Amino acid sequence: MMRALKILAGAALALSVAGGAQAQQVLFWSTQARPVEETQKMRDEVLKGFEGAVDYQVAEDGPWLTRLQAELQAGSGTIGLLGGLHGDFSTVGANLVDLSAVDVGGVKVNEAYKKLGMLGTGEQKYMPWMQATYLMAANKQALQYLPAGTDLNTITYDQLIEWSKTIAEKTGSPKFGFPAGPKGLKHRFFEGFLYPSYTGSMVTKFRSAEAETAWNKFKELWQYTNPNSTNYAFMQEPLLSGEVWVAFDHVARLADAFNKKPDDFVAFPAPAGPAGRGFMPVVAGVAIPKTSPDQEKAKALVAYMLKPETQIATLKATNFFPVVDVKLPDDMPASVKAFGPAIATMTSAPDALPALLPMGLGDLGGKFNQVYTDSFERIVLGGEDVHGVLEQQAAALKAIIDQAKAPCWAPDKPSEGACPVE
Amino acid sequence: MSVATETPVAGIADAHKAGDWLLIATAVLLCVWVLLPIYLLIVNALSSPDQVTAFPKRFFPSFDLGSLSFFINFAGVARALWNSVIVATLTMILAIGFGAPAGYALSRFDFPGKGTFRFLVLMTRAFPLPLLALPLAVMFIRTGLDDTAIGLALVHTTLALPFAVLITFSLFSCIPVELEEAAWTLGCTRWQAFRKVILPLALPGIAASAVFAFTISWNEVFAAAVLTIENRTLTAFLLQSLGESPLYLKFAGGAALVVPALIFIFAVRKYLFAMWGIANR
């Protein structure tokens, strides 16, 4: 036993001195595609086609940022390319290389996301890489009740209410569905869809007159909403069972319905309100830190990531959608075929109003969501006075934002210091 | 009341019996406590994905090697495993190399600040690693220690050192100083006396504290995740990915982490028991 240990120790010492020599490859340091199967696909199917070798390494948010900060402070690094969500980059913007000169060939990158990638500066801090979001889905049986003159691609909240009302009256039961169960993502609907659409804001105008209108409209919609909605988490199930004909949810939570019964459902953009078509994109981007050892090669990799073929491979690997104009091939799952056009329509609509996931809240994110959930429960389920509830919840919201000292994020205008709640 | 007055002998026998039962029950409980999670881990790692999510659980696995073979073929696993072994072994050597002399000095010599030293050694465990990782990484990048096994081993050594010092301190304290003095009177130098008399007595315990250092290094995630990229250890490599993976892969990955450590502990169990044996003497 001791001899074995000695041999092992000798080998370890020898190796630790000799090791370290690595082929020159771009280190892709990413917080995305972390599940092992996705990581594997990123390596084998997405990145294999790049001419220079790529080493795709995933890290959790903490180590990802710590490692990056260490390299920036040390002034030299091994990370060639960063991959992360919009929020991941917002804290390190000053140390990212301007990517506006990257030659993406003839590829047309989504303009709204490119603007997000500037992080409020004049430089392209990160390049959009892939996206996911929330959508509406409808059973084709519901289409016959669409109000005259309504186009699903440009639907408004008023039209949605009227549509749901007609369905409820004609079929005898409310058939709009909403993931308001304990595990449902209802808070994202209020934060990223309802509020921006009516107020053009998520935080600042929380208790404005426009916000009161929004809640009253939602109360109206709730009359035609399946009361079981307070139990729903994934809308794909009630859609498949026919309990619900029209629904809102995250694409990943709708996909199963489309894959199991591709001919029964249509997907379409979230509705628009007076202030625009508010929607919450989940945007991931790629960026190059100033310490990147080979910036030219890293920039080539950025361009490679945006190629239509790469974007399609990425979609297959991660279920995140392309951010460039691309025609999806025929061998995609039914859900992808249905969602792709709907997402493209929504994100590039003239009245599109992207609202980002809350940023800079750290571990207060849960409490932030609770403000919106509580407002929903008190106003819509409890029937309390809208004005009074918003006054109280605004105080709670302000306390959270002040504690986190979080500056405003889109669609609210950038702020000095903590985002104000008017 | 009646039991106590009737026959005291029977009462004692009953108490003995109850005590035995308690002992057995505790032993069984402890075994289940340790073995049940390992059992579930192994069964699920050896089952197909459908069976992992199914209920009720099968008692015997179906020996479906899909999940495990995915891991073995997952790029970098073998290398990460090898890195883990190297780093843990280096940690072991360094921790004992520094810790055992310190432990010996603490047990044999009186020097000013001895109490403070013992306290300070423990203090190194008081700083959370996520806090230290950033400055450490900056320093490592500047000095070229970054992303090397020896660099990570140095960090793990600071984590393992307090235990190495305190365990060896109690070991040496338990070996009578008279043995050493006897060797000196018979013509041994201080070093010879240590090597020929003290070391053989202390060796099993030292080996045990080495094992302890090995497992500390094996289990450490955060420093490994920040300080190494190409040369990730298995723990850092897998934990980054496993958190969000499907259940069956979590089980397979868990097994991949636990089984090598179990084999190692099993191989050196003799020394582990020796540690307690000596410490209790």
What does this molecule look like?
The complex is a heterodimer of chains A (about 425) and B (about 280). Chain A folds into 2 domains: about 25-130 and about 285-325, D-Maltodextrin-Binding Protein, domain 2; about 135-280 and about 355-405, Periplasmic binding protein-like II (D-Maltodextrin-Binding Protein, domain 2). In chain A, strand 1, helix 2 (about 35-45) and strand 2 (about 55-60) form a beta-alpha-beta unit. Chain A contains 15 helices and 11 strands. With about 425 residues, chain A is an alpha/beta fold. Chain B has 2 domains: about 1-65, no CATH class; about 75-280, Orthogonal Bundle (MetI-like fold). Chain B is about 80% helix and about 0% strand. Chain B has 14 helices and no strands. In chain B, helix 4 packs across helix 13 and helix 6 packs across helix 8. The longest helix of chain B has about 40 residues, at about 10-45. The interface of A and B includes residues 1, 12, 22, 57 and 63 of A.
Summarize the structure.
With 422 residues, chain A is α/β, with parallel strands linked by helices. In chain A, 43% of the residues lie in helices and 12% in strands. Chain A folds into 2 domains: 26-132 and 283-326, D-Maltodextrin-Binding Protein, domain 2, CATH 3.40.190.10; 134-280 and 355-404, 3-Layer(aba) Sandwich (D-Maltodextrin-Binding Protein, domain 2), CATH 3.40.190.
